[in-house]
Specification:
The protein is an alpha+beta fold. It has one domain: Creatine Kinase, Chain A, domain 2, CATH 3.30.590.50. 35% of the residues lie in helices and 11% in strands. It contains 27 helices and 22 strands. Strand 18 and strand 19 form a beta hairpin. It is globular. The chain binds adenosine-5'-diphosphate and magnesium ion (2 copies). The site of one magnesium ion has 4 residues, from loops. The site of one magnesium ion has 7 residues, from strand 1. InterPro entries: GCS, Gln_synth/guanido_kin_cat_dom. Its EC number is 6.3.2.2. This is Glutamate--cysteine ligase.
Amino acid sequence: MGLLSQGTPLDWADAVPHAESIRADGLTQVINVFKSASARKNDPRLWGDEIEGVLVNLDEQGKAARLGLRAGRVLDKLMAEEEDIKATGRTPVALWRPEYGRYMLECTPGSPYGPHVKDLLQVEPNMVARREMISGHLRPNERLLTITTFPRLGALAAPVSSLAEGAVDPGPQMAPEAEVAPFTEPWHPQHGDAAHSLFAPDELINTHPRFRTLTANIRQRRGAKVCVAVPVFRDTNTPWPFRDGPYPVTPHPVDGAPPADLPAGQIYMDSMCFGMGNCCLQTTFQASCIAEARRLYDQMIPLTPVLMAVSAAAPIWRGYLADIDCRWNQISASVDDRTRRERGLEPYPADGPAGYVIGKSRYGSVDSYLEASSDRFNDLPLVMNEPARERLEAAGVPAPIARHLAHLFIRDPLVLYRELLVQDNAHSTDHFENIQSTNWQTMRFKPPPLAPLTPPSIVPSVAASAMPSPTGEGPSSGEAIAAPVVNLPPPTVDAPKQDQQETEEDYCLEGPLGWRVEFRSLEVQFTEFENAAFAVFTALLARLIVEGVRCPTTGTTRHVDFRMPITLVDENLERAHRRGAVLTEKFHFRRDSIVDGDDGGSQAATSEDVRASPEDVAAARDLLEEQSAGRIVAETIIPLIRQYLDAAGGLAPEQRATLDRYLDLVAGRASGRYQTNAAWIRDFVRAHPAYKQDSHVSDEINFDLMRAISAISSPSHAADYPTPADLAAGLPALNTERLWGSLPRPVAAARFAPLSDPETSGCASSAASSTEGIILSAPPSATSRAAAATAAAAAASS
Ligand code: ADP
Ligand code: MG
Ligand code: MG
């Protein structure tokens, strides 16, 4: 996410009366954007990544890893450095920004990457430089880990009560003696006023008041705490039927208790931190014009589930191994602010005004394609703000985009600042961004901002003050949080409001940012090598979509088309969550993704037609076949990308080899040749001598897991794990071979030779060859662990 505004956030009751006028102004603003920027052409195809990470404290004495709540302090220092560098007229290598958790940090390159293939080679070194930048600001026992979930967030001190054989399940239980194990440094009690969580203290929320308000307002709008539940992984000794709990007794009588109908077999979570407190990897691409942005958006949508599965990295939730590997649905549930009526659980009163019944949380998958020719794939009924759609279309916004925006505008703005309620709609996109950036979808269509009257002022930052934009140019659309930028002197609250029509016409000319799309489904990886590989893969995918590929035999350029009925993309997203999805699931995908010339799409969309006809859907389904991630990514897309690179040329052999190494990694992950981070984590836990095959990830196991990830991810922490004594004690070796095989060593690991070099390290003896089974069907036996450990210890000490 980008900037945070300064101001006084309104509580829910105070915010509600403003919702309609904020939406009206937001519409005016986005209409002004379309008037100002629809004709933009030839913007450079710049792009950039965002990586989120968490601060973890390693307590060697107590053998525990805890979330460090000091990220704000670290950010202050990094942002002060940024200011110093900018003051000398230079561009910082990287930008660091706050995120939802007080233990989280987000980083991006200091300025976007350039449009050339060679620019892809900057990505990994830039990511490595970011880790070097932050390392000077961390305490000796602090680590920045780029992990999707922190395994022990909200874990109980005494976990898992099993039900007696044949006993009636009493449902979730609370008990006075039940406690949450400490998992933050410093420790804070749970049950805060914002989240009402049984498991997580409000103190782990970023100190900027926006985040607390957002947490509380979501809960209040919904009328209850959020409910996040994931199926537990059933291991050989997992108490079954599994009944998570008992939970601590809540001091919040109205919405503090877990839902009585929570089924057995689930890991229960109850607050925003279990979703927005997780990390991800995102990439944003600027298109040369709006038409190109629409094409990129539509073509990338079908890839979001498959690539999430390939990047899977989230197998542990609240201290248990789960039967899923990915984060998306949990984040959806963690910010689901829909009322019971909106969720369709209760009817609207017959004598009152009708309201929306909405199929998905505001954090969800994309609901509609944007190109006119994609309308035949739009088979999901779209709930729209009808007056908004009419206004957008009347203003000339193309029908599919008007529908998309009108769909976003069914939501309420969640956090409003008293001082920023009135905006200059000719120069600000604040209110539009407020709605846009709390509609968190797998792809985001990012219109350019209106140019502000004055350049953004940079306020020296703390997590709790205004932040400059990464580009210094205007509003960021925010990741986790709607983050309107302070780029205008706030108008006085009682300033006369301009007439809407007049304001729509009186917009400011376009600013320097163009039409962009953001790919948002990737899970963050342990190392810079892996994050660079996935980021570069999406960048090459974007080029393939935009430029097509020249056929080596005929010399003609051919184009890809991945579109499919959008309801099937949703089905794929469900499948992508499942444990080991890359190995066991099939995804709907085009049998043939190459089209020659125009794909014969239907003509301009009509405004009435919001659903593809049954004939359209049947025809679109005929193009599909259920395929493995390996077939889609490794056998279809990557060969096309290689053809694209062959035709593009211009790379020295070693440069091409670097890109090929990234493609090899992504292909290997998709096809199961290498393990996903999720599979690696699961294996690590199951091979740990303290693991009792009961799905429970104890503090001790978590400590060793965090040490292992720290050692893998940072050259300066290579010594974290494993010591010969660790290995002799039977701990699983690092086994990076399974993550990326024997590919030439990644940049980040290159200085990590003592441990990662198969000749000399503990990895060598225990690393499975890359052709061996990748997911353990059962944990390695104690004898094989002991044998591996002895050999590893011998190797390590030689
Ligand atoms: P978000 O809206 O997702 O919070 P930003 O829009 O601030 O984030 O930035 C997301 C990414 O976009 C960063 O990697 C940044 O480098 C990149 N970026 C910034 N400007 C451009 C641009 N003009 N074109 C493409 N990418 C850009
Ligand atoms: Mg973010
Ligand atoms: Mg983002």
